[in-house]
Specification:
Elements (H helix, E strand, L loop, with lengths): L15 H18 L3 H7 L4 H10 L8 E2 L2 E2 L3 H14 L1 H21 L2 H12 L5 E4 L15 E5 L2 E12 L6 E8 L2 E8 L5 E5 L11 E11 L4 E6 L2 H35 L1 E2 L2 E2 L4 H29 L5 H26 L10 H13 L4 H13 L6
Cofactor: FAD
Keywords: FAD, Flavoprotein, Oxidoreductase, Transit peptide
Protein name: glutaryl-CoA dehydrogenase (ETF)
Length: about 375
């Protein structure tokens, strides 16, 4: 079996450091994630703290940030780490990207020096876990419609509201929470042991089962003035955090697709029907070819956008286009791979339907396909379809 990426000589696009990062994360996933992931998925559990500490030991948490114990690697290295993590499972990549690209990035970009020193080194080491409270039960694609409020009481702030679909919240030590104030949208660093903070697990998930997903409830949460993120003013701040995290999804979703394609290739080479391996049938080869074409094209775009990000030239529209392409490509690969595996494809013995189910959530979060199409459409036409 030839690896699909060898057909495009993909490794020639990468630096030695980028290949080292990829290979290190691949070994970590092979040794510590893949042997257990089907069981975690079936049980709807994840040993998040243990995984966070291991990821911290490898320098994967906030790895694209500078200082405070962070590795400071480039965007492509970060993307390749996400690719390998999501090739194991989307829930693992989600833990890492929420920690590093949402919670840590928000504190790094908009926090005070005191907030950075207090939280970032512990989060980079995996000793503290963070979550990001933006989405609400009735405010997903339109975060400007959030109902969570923060009001002044003397020099303190009082927060009230509910956030939903919050990855890591149930095991987090700190939350970055966005709320509506008289001065506009503002961000707050909220220790999870603050009175009035609670979480409720989201049960009965069919997607991202190996991930800690919760509602984050804030009832009269009193915070000192120093809890506010001083550099975050307006909705642009949390949206920039989402833009930071989307690059991980651009690579990560394709990692899930890559694992599905490799699984289908291996299965097709060993499964026989009508006296021959099904890899020898024309329709099977057509499916494998089309999956490879989508994967390679997606990765070429991902690396290009990563290079633009490293050069400080990537635009939100380019990231939206890449996120849209990666997610729709990956879920298409997963669904096609499942057809090659036949009935075996619906079991947890193989990864393809687990990936397909996970990608249904990845397709939706941090911008649905519909929203990203409107972002690209606005860039093409100069006309906004949002209002």
């Amino acid at each position: 079996m030839t690896d699909p990426l060898e057909l495009a000589a993909f490794d020639t696009l990468l630096t030695a450091e980028e290949r080292d990062v990829r290979d290190t994360v691949r070994r970590f996933a092979a040794e510590q994630i893949r042997p257990h992931i089907a069981g975690w998925y079936a049980d709807g559990t994840l040993p998040a703290r243990e995984i966070a500490r291991e990821c911290g030991r490898l320098g994967l948490l906030g790895m694209h940030l500078d200082g405070y114990g962070c590795a400071g690697v480039g965007a492509v290295s970060y993307g390749l780490a996400c690719f390998e993590l999501e090739a194991a499972d989307s829930g693992i990549r989600s833990l890492v990207s929420v920690q590093g690209s949402l919670a840590m990035y928000a504190i790094h970009a908009f926090g005070s020096e005191e907030q950075r020193q207090r939280w970032l080194p512990a989060m980079a080491a995996g000793e503290a876990i963070g979550c990001f409270g933006l989405t609400e039960p009735d405010a997903g694609s339109d975060p400007g419609a959030m109902r969570t409020t923060a009001r002044r009481d003397g020099t303190d702030w009082i927060l009230d509201g509910e956030k939903m679909w919050i990855t890591n919240a149930g095991v987090a030590d700190v939350a970055v929470v966005w709320a509506r104030t008289d001065e506009g949208i503002r961000g707050f660093v909220v220790p999870m042991d603050t009175p009035g903070v609670s979480t409720l697990p989201v049960g009965h998930k069919l997607s991202l089962r190996a991930s800690v997903t919760s509602a984050l409830v804030l009832q009269g949460v009193r915070l000192p003035s120093v809890a506010q993120l001083p550099g975050a003013t307006g909705l642009r701040a949390p949206l920039s955090c989402l833009g930071e995290a989307r690059l991980g999804i651009v690579f990560g979703a394709l990692g899930a697709g890559y694992d599905c394609l490799r699984t289908a290739l291996e299965y097709a080479g060993s499964r026989e029907a009508f006296g021959r391996p099904i890899a020898g049938f024309q329709l099977t080869q057509e499916k494998l070819t089309e999956m490879t074409r989508g994967l390679v094209n997606g990765l070429l775009l991902a690396v290009h956008v990563g290079r633009l990000r490293d050069a400080g030239q990537a635009t939100p529209v380019q990231v939206s286009l890449a996120k849209l392409n990666s997610c729709e490509t990956a879920i298409g690969i997963a669904r096609t791979a499942r057809t090659i595996l036949g009935a075996n494809g619906v079991t947890l013995e193989y990864s393809v339907l687990r990936h397909a189910n996970n990608l249904e959530a990845v397709l939706t979060y941090e911008g649905t396909s519909e929203v990203h199409k409107l972002v690209v459409g606005q860039a093409l036409t100069g006309i906004s379809a949002f209002r």
